[in-house]
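Any chance you could type out a protein's amino acid sequence plus the matching backbone structure tokens because I've never seen that pairing?

——
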Amino acid sequence: DVPKVPDSRGDGDGPRRGSLCDRHCAAINNVQGDLGDLGCHLHRPRLPAATSTPPCCQQHSEEVCESCVVKTTLTAENAVEANKLSNNYKFGFKKWKSHVTARPWEDRSEIVKELYSDLNVIRGSGGSTLTCGNVLYLLLFGWWLSLLYVLVAAVMFVTVMGAPYGRLCWDLAGYFLWPFGKVIQKVEVPKSHQACEAGAGESSALLGGPTPRRWRPRCWAGTGYWQRASTALWLCLGYPLLALAHGLVCVAAWLLIVLIPVAKLSARAASCVLLLPPERLLVRRLRMTEVPLEGEVILCCYRAANPYYYKYAVDGINVFAVNLLPLVLVTLVLGYVDAPNHLTGSAVKFTLALLSIMPLSYYIGMAIASISAQSNFAVGAVVNATFGSITELTFYITALIKGSREGNRCYAEVVKSALTGTLVGCVLFVPGLCMVIGGIRHQEQRFNSRSAGVSSALLFLSVGGVFAPTLFSKVYGKLVCGECHNVTQNPLGHYLCHNCHFDLMDNNGTLYYSHVQPLVYTVSILLPAAYLIGLFFTLKTHTHIYDIHISDCHMPGHHHSAVVHWSRWRALLILLLSTLCMSACADLATEHISPILTNSTISQYFIGVTVLAMVPELPEIVNGIQFALQNNLSLSIEIGNCIAVQVCMLQIPILVLFTIFYPTNFTLVFSDLHVYASMFSVVLMNYIFMDGKCDYFQGTVLVMVYFILLAVYFFAPSPSGC
């Protein structure tokens, strides 16, 4: 909420004094800061009537006051979230969208509450149950699950002793065919039956260990129930098959995400309904105006699908990251157990390894954000600098090692393409996509142009430094061509040459070792130094550029202590394990990329700038889109800029340093296509970000230019030596 500033026209100092500044400050404050699901909002302190005009505006009556424009005050739920929000605005820190602490249940929206609600709540008016999601359940699961219950019912009727379970399965067959608008209740057992169950209790869980309260209603049978012969028959003939079927339904529905209610339904049926005595269960249809008054509701479902389940989280982990985690295990098992490629080919293993990098990048990012939010500034800076680029560096280093062992220059060229693709994608595609998606909801978005200007200046410096050895080699290198033909048949005529490049190893590599290599080392020292100066500039001497203030007051109703999802030690353990798995997946990706590079008709340039460059950045892109949707374009732009700056000022110098201790084919000399694409992208980005505001049209321009460059890479011939 943005409190209104009292109108200054009531006093006698002037009717229009500071009016433009007030309006501009209100507009800026209305678009900066973490909003929405972050649980924080911007506010400006309410000024007294006598001092309603800010001091800066008294000096600049009709000019936009700079201090008001960049001032951003955030209100967080607790100290940990406040630290995380502050870190989001710090240059060089990983920007994170999700909460690192558990949000109170009463502060959640009704949509989110419904996602976590139990399937035992009866609504007053459920509406029509004929929906697309319910029909999808019928086609995918309902018909064969109902048929299976009918078959089990027939088997139990044949045994005579299991006839009560046969009647129960018959009722459940109709229920699971179309469970919507129906209810399963646990009814009270008559006293004559209770006498037969002396010593019965409901305190022990069947699955062992404590069960979450939300998943454990009071549906456990007494000890007398387990001593029946019919119960033993049911547990041998009927229950295993039905439990297996519900387990398959639960896994399939969970993986589809939107059908998570079906997964909850199946889990409750297997763990509770099928383990109760049949005489204590009642299946009935719930009419619109009828609410059962007797008995405990065990299952009551109205919708099989909910599109908002993409927000669902398990212990702070998004459901997509949870579902992709088994993919990492499958990738590692297939990659190292099936080394001779008997089960799957190299293309499948490469794809799996590349997809496994996405959830691991998410876990690394959340671990970094959790550690930074719970630590002081020094620890957070060290963790961000150490592990912020670990995903990309792991892949690049493993690729260079493999190329050095095989004596194949293609791997070094692919790494250069991936570096350029990351730079171009984070400068054009990431902010452009965020502008387009955010511009659909917001007509015009504003951002902190001064903070973007710092990143832009560092980008100009870094791009110039990275490509300085390339430009030096173009000027002083010797042009060597692989094949030349005399067009005019005249010795002094024109020649048509192919596969030309600048040779730096002429005269035993004098030019390279005496001039280019020292220049590369010099640049690799100056770029990290410039990065550190940028950190010192934005985080120490010129913090007013960002001017992020965390208010001491909390949001209404927030009087609880912070409950973090991951403690520091747990986050550190997950960070180390994710980094280890990332190294293994990167090793598998580089191990099985060789057939793709040699047999594919697509240019190696295109593979590097698209797949290898942008797939590891997908979690960052998702974060940027979420920030843009909440009208916080500043963080969306900073995500792309920080990644691009780290590529040039940290990742490339680290690769150069690595080649000193482990000689590879990697040299800091790029092709002309990489140079032109990178420089053009940085110039265009600075032109778009010049005025501090944007819309979906400008975002469309950036995205279109990015796709044009992809088309150029797609039709470009493969680099020489590949």
Summary: The mean pLDDT is 76. The CA atoms of residues 364 and 416 lie 24 Å apart. The longest strand covers residues 478-486. The radius of gyration is 32 Å.
